[in-house]
Every structure is written in C-alpha cells, then in structure tokens.
Design goal:
Elements (H helix, E strand, L loop, with lengths): L1 E10 L2 E23 L1 H8 L1 E3 L5 E3 L27 H7 E26 L2 E20 L1 H4 L12 E19 L10 E13 L3 E13 L4 E12 L3 H5 L3 E5 L17 H14 L19 E5 L8 E12 L7 E19 L1 H9 L6 H4 L3 E2 L12 E27 L1 H4 L7 E18 L5 E2 L9 E11 L2 E10 L2 E2 L13 E2 L2 E13 L2 E8 L20 E8 L2
C-alpha cells in the first residue's frame, strides 16, 4: 500500500515543491521439500521376511511390543520403482520453512533553486527517508524437532533493522542558454550526497559528481565519479541456522590440488605448515580427502549478523556525437572503471578453504570456518574435512575496466523513395567491451576473470526496426565473443579451452488495431542456435521459440 502527497508554495521570491509519501509492504512465502525422517527410515530399512514372500518391519516382528509401529512399511532401497507408496509416506515429511518480510517506508522531499546564474538557476532537492524492514523465519515442525537431515534442530529466527537517510542533490548550469563561450555551448555540474544510518550495518556516506560539457551542437563530453554501497539483506543477516551432511568440495591440501590455485607456492607452504603441526594427518604427498566427493562433512548453513556494507567506487567518462552533416545519427562511447571492496559473497566450505590456504597471511575467520579429523575414525583418514560452513561474508574484491558503445541511425528512407511513404527505419547498435576484470577474496592474489563465459570481452546487440503506420517489424542480432572455457583453461587442462562466438537472430512484428490495442508475434532464436560447445549455457539455452500476445491499454 502506498500513499503520497505533493504540492508547491512560494517563499523568499522562490518557488518550492514538495512531496511526502509512505508505503507498507508484506511478503509471505515458504521454501518446501520432502525430508527423510531419520528414525522411520531406519525402521523401514530394518526389514525381515513375513513368511509369505514379502517383508515387514523388524520392529513389528520381534517379541518386543513396545517398539511396534503400525504405520511402518518395509522399504527396499535397491533397484528402480521398488519403494511402495506406504513406505514412501512413512519415511518422508514436509521439510523447509515459512518466512514473512515486512517493509515500512517514509519519504519527504523539498526542492527549489538557490539563485540564478547567467546560464540559469541552481536547482536543488533535499530529502529525508526512514525505512524499517523485518523478517521472520519459522522452520517446519520436523525441522524444529530435528527429525530430518542430520538430526540437528533448526530454530526459528527473526530480525529487523531500520535506516535514517538524509540526501541532497544539486544541478549547477555554469554555461548555457544565452550565456556561451567559445567551444562551450553548455557546461553543467551535478552533485549528490546521501548519509545513511543503518541500525545494523552502521553509518555510510555515498556521493556522486558529474560534469556535462557541450562543445557544439554536434559534440558533448560527460564524466562522473561516485561512491555507492549495498547493505546486506535480511536473509543474508538472519537466515536460520541449519546443519546438513554434504561433501566439502575441493580441498586445497589434497594431493591432486596442492600445486594448483592462484599461487601454488603459497598454498603448498600453508598446507605443509598445518601438516607439520598435526603429525597424525600423515603424509601430505599422498593425502586424498574423501570429503571432496562423499557426504562426510557436517555443514552449517545460515545468516551472518556481522556483515558490513559493500562499497564501490565508479568513474565514467565519454562523449556523445550527433553530426549535423549526417542527420539522424547518434554515437556515444563511455569508459567505465569500477572498484568494489567488502563485496557480499556467498561462501561455501570450499571457498573458506581456498581463502585460508591461498593467502600468504592466513585470515583467522576463514580458517576457523572448517575443521579436520584429528585422527582416523577407521573409515576416513586423519585430515578429512569433517565440519564446514556456508554463509555470506564480506570478502569480494572486484576491479572492472571497460567501455560501452552505442550507435543509432534513423535511415532517411523518404529521401530515396519519394513517390510513396516508405515508413521509418531505425538501426541501433549496443556493445560492451570488458578490457579488464580482476576478482579476489581479501588478501588473495587477484585473478583475471575477463574473457570468460561469465564476462566476455565483447557482447553486442544490433536492432533494425521498421515502422509504417500501425505496423512495426523488428530484427535483432545478439552477439557473444569467443572466450576461454574457464579463467585458467589451457589445452593441457581442458580438451576444449575456448568457447566459440555465439550469434542468435530474432524477428518480431506488431500491429496496432486500435489506439488501445496492439497485437504482436515473433520468433526468438530464429536459427535455433545452441550454446557454444562444450558449455550448456553460453548462448541461448532455450532454443527456438515462438510467441504471440496482445497489449491492451486502459
């Protein structure tokens, strides 16, 4: 629900405008899966012959009547389709949690102008915002009683936070209007500042500054610098704690991994130091961690109430060119540089291990997120990772440099076809170039992750749109550049180290039947282009598909 008011008034020879708004939102939902009841599963597996060619639960066949369970149905775990409906119903139960999120927001703004410059008035806007958010997570009864999973109980959790925010924006026309200078038709400065007091993540100040310089009617330059942040979500902060049996993922000290990673020498030295401090772990050169592949690790999942804000600094500069000698053409190029610190990253047990062993100075919080088996338990060797954690941490470091290129041209068809109305043809091109992208966790060696499937060096889209009266026809080409199959892929480590470029074509059409009704249809991925081999996702994963629809405006 939302309610807003706005108005204007005059004071001190200035015109003011104001807005006041409030909103309330509530979301309820659940995450659900079928869990296996531990005690019932053991009862159903312990089956004996019923003497008639079938099987019954041993607890119902022994002499002890106190352990009988009339609902128990013998379960055959071997083969396909051998579990009866009665057995399935006996050993399974709903598992998961319900959640409720609420948000209350109040916003007030006041805008006016300070005074007039030769190029125009200096405009400003002041604002105050208060936001409260809360979340409740209630596990299902089976989870609260510890009847499923590892047998550990899952407790209901809740949390909330509020923010008080003050902000200001200003627009200063330095040159413009009737006041111009040689090679300066317009010069405009914009600035903004926001102070945020978050009851959990603390205080943060973010700001932005921009400059726009129009040299002539044809050419304009622009630049900006800003600092921004992202606060942790309620789920990242307060998700309920749960334990599951799982594998631990890649163990850096495994004999197959110890000479890998961003800095193999650092990894090996850290592993050797730990093995030297724990002689019971045995010979590091032959250590194989079964936790890499088998479910021998007790993994704790949940929120992290100690999270801080994620911070980013962004610089952009570029130009817009609209040549008067080519009417209808617009070109723009912008350079982007982004540096992100304290990134909010979802860490698995394997991520904690990598951050621990791949740092020259091992971070205590990373290394304490998992433990190893002190001595062999008869099944697993000493050194096996037996406990781990999955949660969100402030660990991400990202440095991005790239360019965004845009071009649009309205083709003058009427100059070629003068005897009839040829309609209007607009050609558009959007391209993004990633010149450098490095990522790391705190203290670790930075990895180049550009020129990979997640971050191609070049991506682009070309559009051709023809309109005439009520008819609109569109052609679109999407382009993904050739990339490495993974950041460190080589012909020695990967049979297919490169993913070939991927191009898809799509067409669509629309017809305006009435002012309030438009029908449309099209084909996405016209040639049924598949993702680039051997990737299953580098490209269009859905294949050729058709659509029809209608837009109705009230």
């Amino acid at each position: 629900a939302m309610l807003g008011l706005e108005g204007e008034f005059a004071a001190a020879d200035r015109d003011f405008y104001w807005t006041v708004s409030g909103s309330f939102g509530r979301v309820e939902g659940e995450s659900f899966s079928w869990g296996v009841l531990l005690a019932e599963f053991e009862n159903a597996l312990a089956a004996v012959s019923d003497g008639a060619g079938g099987a019954i639960c041993a607890i119902n066949a022994d002499a002890d009547t106190t352990n009988d369970d009339p609902n128990c149905a013998a379960l055959n775990p071997f083969g396909f389709g051998n579990i009866s409906d009665d057995a399935r119903a006996y050993v399974t139960t709903p598992s998961g949690e319900t959640y409720v999120n609420e948000q209350v927001d109040f916003l007030a703004t006041l805008g006016s102008s300070l005074f007039d410059l030769p190029a125009g008035p200096i405009d400003y806007v002041l604002a105050y915002e208060h936001r409260s958010e809360s979340a409740e997570f209630t596990p299902f009864q089976a989870n609260q009683l510890g009847l499923v999973g590892t047998g550990a109980t899952t407790l209901a959790t809740s949390g909330d936070y509020n923010t008080n925010e003050l902000s200001a924006e200003i627009l200063v026309p330095i040159v413009g209007g009737d006041f111009t200078l040689p090679l300066v038709q317009e010069l405009e400065f914009s600035g903004s500042y926001r102070f945020v007091d978050n009851s959990i993540a603390g205080e943060e100040g973010v700001w932005g500054a921009g400059l726009r310089w129009r040299v002539t009617e044809d050419l304009m330059f622009r630049a900006s610098q800003s600092r921004n942040f992202r606060a942790p979500t309620l789920t990242q902060l307060f998700a309920p704690t749960n334990t599951v049996f799982s594998n631990a993922g890649i163990d850096p000290c495994d004999a197959d991994r110890i000479n890998s990673g961003p800095n193999p020498a650092v990894r090996r030295a850290n592993c050797e130091a730990e093995w030297a401090a724990n002689p019971a772990y045995g010979n590091l050169a032959t250590f194989q961690d079964p936790a890499e592949n088998f479910t021998v690790t007790t993994v704790t999942t949940g929120g992290n109430a100690n999270l801080e804000n994620e911070i980013s600094d962004t610089t952009t500069f570029g130009f817009v060119f609209e040549p008067s000698f080519i009417p209808g053409l617009t070109l723009s190029v912008d350079r982007l540089e982004i540096e992100l610190t304290d990134g909010l990253v979802a860490f698995t047990t394997a991520d904690f291990m990598a951050a621990c062993y791949d740092n020259a100075v091992q971070p205590v919080d990373m290394c304490s997120a998992f433990t190893r088996l002190a001595a062999s338990d008869g099944t697993n060797p000493a050194g096996t990772v037996v406990t781990g954690r999955t949660t969100t941490v402030n660990a991400g470091l990202i440095n991005f440099e790239g360019e965004v290129i845009s071009a649009q041209y309205m083709v003058p068809l009427d100059a070629v076809f003068t005897s009839f109305d040829p309609g209007q043809l607009t050609l558009g091109l959007e391209a993004t170039h990633t010149s450098s992208l490095t990522t790391a966790v705190v203290g670790a060696t930075e990895d180049r992750t550009d020129n990979t499937a997640a971050n191609p060096d070049w991506t682009g889209r070309f559009d051709a749109i023809w309109t005439r009266g009520p008819v609109r026809l569109t052609y679109q080409l999407s382009y993904l550049d050739e990339v490495l199959a993974s950041a460190n892929a080589t012909i020695e480590s990967t049979p297919n180290p490169y993913l070939s470029r991927n191009i898809t074509h799509s067409i669509s059409g629309a017809y305006e039947l009435r002012e309030d009704l438009t029908i449309r249809a099209g084909i996405t991925n016209l040639t049924d282009e598949e993702p680039s081999y051997p990737s299953l996702s580098y490209g269009d994963i859905l294949g050729r598909r058709y659509f029809v629809g209608a837009n109705f405006r009230f």
